[in-house]
From TrEMBL:
GO terms for cellular component: microtubule. Keywords: Cytoplasm, Cytoskeleton, GTP-binding, Microtubule, Nucleotide-binding. GO terms for molecular function: GTP binding; GTPase activity; structural constituent of cytoskeleton. InterPro entries: Beta_tubulin, Tubulin, Tubulin/FtsZ_GTPase_sf. Belongs to the tubulin family. The keyword 4Fe-4S does not apply. GO terms for biological process: microtubule-based process. This is Beta-tubulin. Transmembrane segments: none annotated. It comes from the Eukaryota. It is found in: Cytoplasm, Cytoskeleton.
Length: 77
């Protein structure tokens, strides 16, 4: 039985792709509903060096994250 997080992250378009009413009721624990059935992870990605987070938006799950949830410094520690 897949978890709520893995179920939601399975769909690259970030649509809810499960069959459990209970999971759908609790989506707001890990995700914010954008519009319609689109869900965005509740996450803040933080690092002191901006280069370490560059692969995230370019990766296969990059479209799930909002750009304003990335927080980074100007140079490493």
């Amino acid at each position: 039985r897949p978890s709520l997080v893995s179920t939601a992250l399975t769909a690259l378009a970030s649509n809810y792709n499960g069959s459990s009413d209970l999971q759908l009721e609790r989506m707001n624990v890990y995700f914010n509903e954008a519009n319609g059935d689109k869900y965005v992870p509740r996450a803040v990605l933080v690092d002191l060096e901006p280069g370490t987070m560059d692969p995230v938006p370019a990766g296969p799950f990059g479209e799930l994250f909002r750009p304003d949830n990335f927080v980074f410094g100007q140079s490493g520690a």
